[in-house]
Amino acid sequence: MRISVFLDGANFFFMQRSKLGWFADPKRLLDYIATKGDINEAFYYIGQDAPPEARQQAFLDALPSMGYSLVSKQIKTIYDTKTGTTKKKANLDIEIVLDMFNTIDHYDMAVLISGDGDFERALTLLRARGKQLLVIATEGFIARELRSVAGRHYIDMQDIKADIERVRP
Q1: How far apart are CA 47 and CA 38, in angstroms?
Q2: Around Cβ 107, how many Cβ atoms within 10 Å?
Q3: pLDDT by residue (tens digit) across 37-91?
């Protein structure tokens, strides 16, 4: 089974911080996924500050040695004139979907690590093209639409905590 992994970095981070209360080790997560087949490609999509903070840069620099190809986009600051507030955003959903379809001949199973319902249509189309799917997220942080498409091909991060939790030395 040839596998390609598509990890939505922002969704992954906020899922851990806001819902799980513990952090997953990206390398251990890949090791877990590798028990399902041969990982052909693993993409990690993340917004990047300009210039990145030292801690963020260290994490970004470590990702390739963990086995990920880094796909980044500069974070933009958006000013809301109605509320007078600013919001930082670097939406990489389009890049994820484009890579899913541009590399479609390289994998038999697409693993999406995200709970974002925007991926519902892409996963439906991948399934129609004969691809197997696996969605990794957590309850309370996965859109109903995405959960419906995944069906039994959904893994809750809580259920694999022992395999993927970041262990502090």
Answers
A1: 27
A2: 23
A3: 999 999 999 988 777 677 778 888 999 999 999 998 887 778 888 888 887 777 8
| Tokens 């979907």, residue located | 97
Q: What is the side-by-side order of every strand in the sheet holding 2-8?
A: 69-74, 38-48, 2-8, 109-113, 132-137, 154-156
Which amino acid, 20?
Answer: L
Round to whole Å and give the CA distance between 113 and 134: 8
SS3 content of the chain, % helix, strand, coil (to 5): 45, 30, 25
| Residues facing 44 on adjacent strands | 7, 70
What kind and span of H or E run contains 111? Answer: strand 109-113
Checking if the pLDDT of 169 tops 70, the result is no
Which pTM value belongs to this model?
A: 0.91
- Per the DSSP assignment, residues forming a β-bridge with 111 are 5, 134
Q: Coil, strand, or helix at residue 49? A: coil
Task: Look at phi and psi of residue 67 and say left if phi exceeds 0, alpha if psi is from -120 to 50, else beta.
Answer: left
> Is there a contact between 115 and 148 (Cβ–Cβ < 8 Å)?
no
